[in-house]
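Technical appendix A lists one of the benchmark inputs used to test multi-chain prediction within the project. The record comprises two sequence entries:
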Amino acid sequence: MEKIVIDIYGADNGAEPVLSGVAKALKCGVDFFPVLVGEESVIDSVMQENGIAKDAYNVINTDKYITNNDPPTAVFGGNDDASMVKAYSYLKENNDCTAMLSPGNTGALLIGSICRLGLVAGLKFPALASALPTLDNKLVCLVDCGANTDCTANDLVRFAKMGNAFSSSYCGIKEPKISLLSVGREKGKGNTLVKEAYELLEQSELNFIGNVEGSDLLIGYADVIVSDGFSGNIILKNAEAIGKAAMQIIERLGASENPELTKRMTNALFKAFDFNSQGGATFLGPKKTVVKMHGSANEDTVVACIEQIIRLNKGNFAEKIANCLN
Amino acid sequence: MEKIVIDIYGADNGAEPVLSGVAKALKCGVDFFPVLVGEESVIDSVMQENGIAKDAYNVINTDKYITNNDPPTAVFGGNDDASMVKAYSYLKENNDCTAMLSPGNTGALLIGSICRLGLVAGLKFPALASALPTLDNKLVCLVDCGANTDCTANDLVRFAKMGNAFSSSYCGIKEPKISLLSVGREKGKGNTLVKEAYELLEQSELNFIGNVEGSDLLIGYADVIVSDGFSGNIILKNAEAIGKAAMQIIERLGASENPELTKRMTNALFKAFDFNSQGGATFLGPKKTVVKMHGSANEDTVVACIEQIIRLNKGNFAEKIANCLN
């Protein structure tokens, strides 16, 4: 059974929902062995409350952690006792531990993946990939979602190659359709960065299908949408916010008149546009699988993130990432 | 009464909806005098069908026009008979004509505003502004929506100043709250371009309130959101597409079960997220008011665009734009 190391600190509502989520995953029969990094007494207490036996998990005891207000550089020296750092160290040193999950400070997790774990050859900084549900019930991988705000065309090519590895391992697609986020589908549309990357991607061995535009995010036209982290972050947050706003409009109009139908509608909108509830952001570049779950994570998000890690591992994600930039 | 010159060609469904829209505006008592550029017999026929007397409008007769497949440079030499070019010439040469409306080729309209009409001093290329309805029933101006895909920090400052002029004249706001689109609200978040523009805007006389992020587009936090045209185009198209997708989900779930409630819901979503139906993109930079209406424009869009022009003129938009870059 594969070990997943889980940093329990950094979520908006504290460690409890994270631990309850781990317990729920175990009770649902998800096939993994958690190594929980946090205060042992708290961990044991929540796991016991949830009916999880002491031998179903390991603990790395610490009550120190990096907060969301700390600078990303907090993962450097002086914080060796912080849960995130201990989790990275455990992941690095243990061959039977394949992945790490954390709701912590994204910047610190990114820097930590470089200085505490290590990136695959050919990469200076990891990228963030999100798997978004499309309207035709597939998944589209958006990369980069915000780790790299200033990019070169070669960065975008690397994102494309890593997105290709993600899509093939996570979604089981043989030749993922790779696209570039731009202002129009036609070749020649876009800023200088996109135009340069377009030329490079045309020459690559990837199944490059050209540009997509802002309206194409969730239609399933492409399997991978490549973007600099600035635009990727903006479109991701926008899509979630518009989805949420639509839910509020529907709720306001229908909740008292037809609560049952309205509930089904808002549930459908939630499923379509609340990406955080359906898993976490996958780091592209670290030598082992790292998934960042959203700070607002609840029990179900944690279960979804653990299932995401197992699915990635089954698809040989780490191996594919290690080889895709050669 | 002010004259508005209207290029009737370039819309997806031909000239007829554009002309019907003009007729509708006249019948609704909107206070303007249309100068219609297009084939006289067609114009007269549609206006007559709609009960508009021949003395309620002027015609500049031509059956030539620039299509959406033509390159933007089609407005240069050799196309002096094209409706768009004739409209620009009329606008330039007639003091009592204050504005132009066209559903035509956006690129050609942009280039045409430079070479056929002229920009205010201090500007090399116009920007596109959209007034979007916020969830708290205000309007937010997004600039640039796609005219300038590669920008410098000084470009963003010019967009901010012109957005300020737009917001104060169109929305009547005394000191519009100006913001920069970025990946987080905190100072220091963003790409190099945004960080540089942030410093410049802090030193400006504008009411600069800092960054907004992708989730802030429609919440009414800022009156003006400044962006390079690449990210601005992407977020605008994304917001519309997500809104449309939400409408389809609601329609599918509720249309047969509770058609009346479902109709009210989809109408509300349309009102919130179908920006094209509520007016056009305003050009920031030309010496006179130019509004581009969407190719999919229907009658009501045309009426909304004409009302938009009148509202801009009442707010001394052209004068404010002429002076804002000094």
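The first strand of chain A starts at residue 3 and ends at 7. Residues 7 and 102 of chain A are 5 Å apart (CA to CA). Comparable benchmark entries are summarised in Table A2.
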